[in-house]
Amino acid sequence: MRTPRYKQLHQQLKADILIGRYEEGNLLPSENTLSAKHSMTRMMVRQALSALEQEGYITRRQGKGSIVCAHQPALGLLSFRGFSEVVGETEHSATSQFLSKPQLIKWNEGFFFDLSENEHQAGCIAIERLRQVDDQPVMLEYTYLPNLNIPEFCQKQWVDSSLFRTLYQHYQLEITSVDQRIRAVTAKVKIAAQLDLDVGTPILHIHRKYGTSRQGFFVYSSLFCNTEHYAIGSIIR
Predict the structure, then answer these.
(1) In 3-state terms, what secondary structure has residue 36?
(2) Are 234 and 76 in contact (CB under 8 A)?
């Protein structure tokens, strides 16, 4: 079933707000501007803006327009600390579900970060997890580790369901930095089903390369983030 055009505009404007294209206090383009830009009637534009207002993303003032406002609780998931640690410091509850247990595979061709020859030869340990906050799916996470000097990793019992704590306790590997690249995409069928979203809903896609206390050992992640209920923020300390 095709998504109504006003809903497509609603989803696009919401994504623009969540990624910061329109910040708190900014005015959205006028109804006339949006109508012309998206080739739709003003009635459709009003439907999209009304949906944003009901969700708390904007306030509409007569004679002034639609003003972006902050309403969503923000999760500091852009920091390089672990998911459980970050959410655990809030009033929210975090859970993780393994969709694929750790398994040794070959690296994908055209991997999203450049790999060293040692990493290529060692092979890849792949993990797939669904992350939830207050029982709402917020992140689908694909994690990749080089099979370098982490013996029997696939058989290890995880510490507090945390990859970072497991690496530290069993292998004295500490996460020290992160290089991350963020872009807005639309949810494909598989991703939408896992995140409980409509196909085509705007989501965030993040590629990460974590540096560690061991020279030459990196952890890689590909994250798909559902921002319907929580904004994805950054905590700097």
Answers:
(1) helix
(2) yes
Position 218, amino acid: F
What amino acid occupies position 41? Answer: T
> CA 3 to CA 8: how far, in whole Å?
7
Least Cα distance to 169 among 184, 153, 185 occurs for: 153
- Topology at the third CATH level for domain 5-68: Arc Repressor Mutant, subunit A (1.10.10)
**Residue 157 burial by Cβ neighbours in a 10 Å radius (0-12, 13-18, 19+):** exposed
Fold of 74-232: Chorismate lyase (3.40.1410)
Q: Which amino acid is at 194?
A: Q
pLDDT tens, residue by residue, 77-121: 555 556 665 555 566 677 889 999 999 999 999 999 999 999 999
Q: Which two tokens stand for residue 58?
A: 């904007």
d(CA 75, CA 228): 12
Amino acid found at 217:
F
Q: Give the tens place of pLDDT for each residue, 172-226.
A: 999 999 898 989 899 999 999 999 999 998 898 999 999 999 999 999 999 998 8
141: helix, coil or strand?
Answer: strand
**Domain ranges for the chain:** 5-68, 74-232
Residue 24 makes CB contacts below 8 A (sequence gap 6+) with 68, 69, 70
* DSSP label of 73: P
